[in-house]
Amino acid sequence: MTTQIVTAAILAIGDELLSGRTKDKNIGHLADVLLLSGIDLKEVRIVADEEEAIVEALNALRARYTYVFTSGGIGPTHDDITADAVSKAFGLPCEHDAEAMRLLADMYARRGMEFTEARQRMARMPRGARHIANPVSTAPGFVVENVYVMAGVPQVFQAMVDNILPELAGGAKMLTRSLPCPYGEGDIGTLLGAIQKAHPATSIGSYPKYDGQRFSTELVVRARDPEALDAAAHAIAAMIRDLDTARASGHPGPEA
Amino acid sequence: MTTQIVTAAILAIGDELLSGRTKDKNIGHLADVLLLSGIDLKEVRIVADEEEAIVEALNALRARYTYVFTSGGIGPTHDDITADAVSKAFGLPCEHDAEAMRLLADMYARRGMEFTEARQRMARMPRGARHIANPVSTAPGFVVENVYVMAGVPQVFQAMVDNILPELAGGAKMLTRSLPCPYGEGDIGTLLGAIQKAHPATSIGSYPKYDGQRFSTELVVRARDPEALDAAAHAIAAMIRDLDTARASGHPGPEA
């Protein structure tokens, strides 16, 4: 088992994500996939279709994390400027890629459709970029160094993610265990803080839930070492049992 | 009508948003609300429960936008470090706020519950911060300069948003019009680019949809001036009619 820590950021690009018009579906999907791959998603940014904003975010993220995954802005319309912005961030010319032109020309020819100037925009990418195959609609995504540029349409994004997964270096898989807890954070905060301190090789998250009347929590232990995970999970289970006992004996503390 | 441009960013804080465990509900809600208020949401970031990450993102965003709205990390557990991080970003001491202590002590006394050390954490905020009332569970959010710090639990977040809305300076309302378009981006990209160029006071977005077989688009015109909006929307409608005519006459272009 490798103990290498592999990190990632997602940069979702598109005015529609910021206007509330489109609820993003790609971030949650990729977050799930990265978790399973043992890659730590550390940051997400959503920016508008503005070159300066994309370039700045991309340069900040690609310097900081092992991988950066982008979604959106690689279609054929005037507001699709991700290829230009990525090229600018890397100081590379943005060109019509010969192989992408061939793939797209063939596809449109087979379908008896015109390979318009707009469609040719989808073949543009930074010089020397590697392709990410697009089995849904042909127009490829691309990779420059540690930056993976993918489409915004969820079906296409997910297909591209499937295609890049095998080449990503997975980190030591992060193990997680969820413990539903009937007590609110106010009841368990101090105890849980002590458990976290006693189990430094784990990360214990407390996620409050509210059903309209009462708070409960879901407690999630994360660790790379299964023994550390077990030890912390046992300590939490013991804490919940102790609170149950206190509640049964009429102690006023727990809200239940 | 004011023509002031008012901008905003959202900073969502929490490991659970990055692990794929919790799908964020606050960003989409606030994006909708801001759009209606005439405030331009320009950037969203999601960061982990790590002080350095929160401080850095907060300082970048608060310098750049009119308002910054945060969600998450103000509960009573050890991983709730947003109050500390916001204090650090502003160089202020993080203290138990006297009024928040009173509100919480009263609430727990009324409910016959102990005001534990963990619950007292929820009264901590940067010295001098203004409260954001929390009608759901009492523990207040807070405001420092242009930064609005709110809870992560969606019901509480939304109640806090309702409470701050009246004090936000709305910008000139951004008007939008959506035009469903049965043609894919490849068919309309060049024409639409020309329309965008001819209508510089508008922002025309093209959002591809894919039903598993074909692409269509939703075209969205945004403008602060209603006449500019009308003119661009008419040009787009004319474009769609022309494509319909071409299709009916057997022109091979449009994919339909």
TrEMBL record, chains A, B:
Pfam families: FLAD1_M, MoCF_biosynth. It comes from the Bacteria. It comes from Rhizobium straminoryzae. Signal peptide: none annotated. InterPro entries: CinA (IPR050101), FLAD1_M (IPR056596), MoaB/Mog-like_dom_sf (IPR036425), MoaB/Mog_dom (IPR001453). This is Competence/damage-inducible protein A. Residues 9-172 form the MoaB/Mog domain.
